[in-house]
Amino acid sequence: MPKKVKRYGFLSSVPKVDRPFIRRVLANPRGWASAGYAFESVGRNRAQKKVDFVIDVAEEDDLLRRFPHDDLRGLSVTSIHRGASPSHIYLNRTNWNRVPANFEGSLDEYRAYLIAHEVGHAIGFDHEEPLPGGGDERTPCAVMYQQTRGTRGVCSPNSEIERERRPKKMARPRIL
Ligand SMILES: [Zn+2]
């Protein structure tokens, strides 16, 4: 499959210590790579080249001010842009550092899901039902299901797109 190369940058809010983990999630062959995507970090050359998305870590209060929509409360948010300006992933710092109450897994499992999910939006994918292909609570959740809202009794935490039916592209740019 020809690779669709997506370029991204870290904003200074993303702790340096967390960046290798994020890079590993993006390079996981069972992740978006299995759907034909490759990711290239732009580092200091951000100004010279087209960047598809940037990764930022934001405080919950700041997110509530920026995106005062009830359905985004307590979540990480990706603001989708098409054209010149990159999409913007805001990782909610509270979630980044603490597993949500109804997510059944470790912090690393949660972080891997969160990166895969928000990057999924940034490259054009929409939300999914927990189990679009059917199954029970032992079946891997769709990566594009909002696992922050809970996996307990629903599906098993999952950050790997290869383990599920192919997700669908979204029809138009928006914030989600
Ligand atoms: Zn989402």
Could you characterize what this model shows?
- The chain has 176 residues and is of the alpha/beta class.
- The protein has a single domain (4-127), classed as Collagenase (Catalytic Domain) (3-Layer(aba) Sandwich).
- 21% of the residues lie in helices and 15% in strands.
- The chain is built from 4 helices and 5 strands; from the N terminus they run βαββαββαα.
- The protein has helices at 19-27, 60-66, 93-97, 107-122, and strands spanning 4-10, 37-41, 53-58, 77-79, 87-92.
- Strands 2-1-3-5-4 form a 5-stranded mixed sheet.
- A hairpin with a 7-residue loop joins strand 4 (77-79) and strand 5 (87-92).
- Helix 1 crosses helix 4.
- The longest helix is centred in the middle third of the chain and has 16 residues, at 107-122.
- Zinc ion (ZN) is lined by residues 117, 121, 127, 146, 176.
Topology (SSEs and partners):
Layout (H helix, E strand, L loop, with lengths): L3 E7 L8 H9 L9 E5 L11 E6 L1 H7 L10 E3 L7 E6 H5 L9 H16 L54
Parallel strand pairs: 1-2, 1-3, 3-5
Antiparallel strand pairs: 4-5
Helix pairs in contact: 1-4
The chain binds zinc ion.
Zinc ion binds next to helix 4.
Quick overview of this protein structure:
This protein is α/β, with parallel strands linked by helices. Helices cover 21% and strands 15% of the residues. Bound molecules: zinc ion.
Write a concise keyword list for the protein shown above:
176 residues, alpha/beta, Collagenase (Catalytic Domain), 5-stranded mixed sheet, 4 helices, 15% strand, binds zinc ion
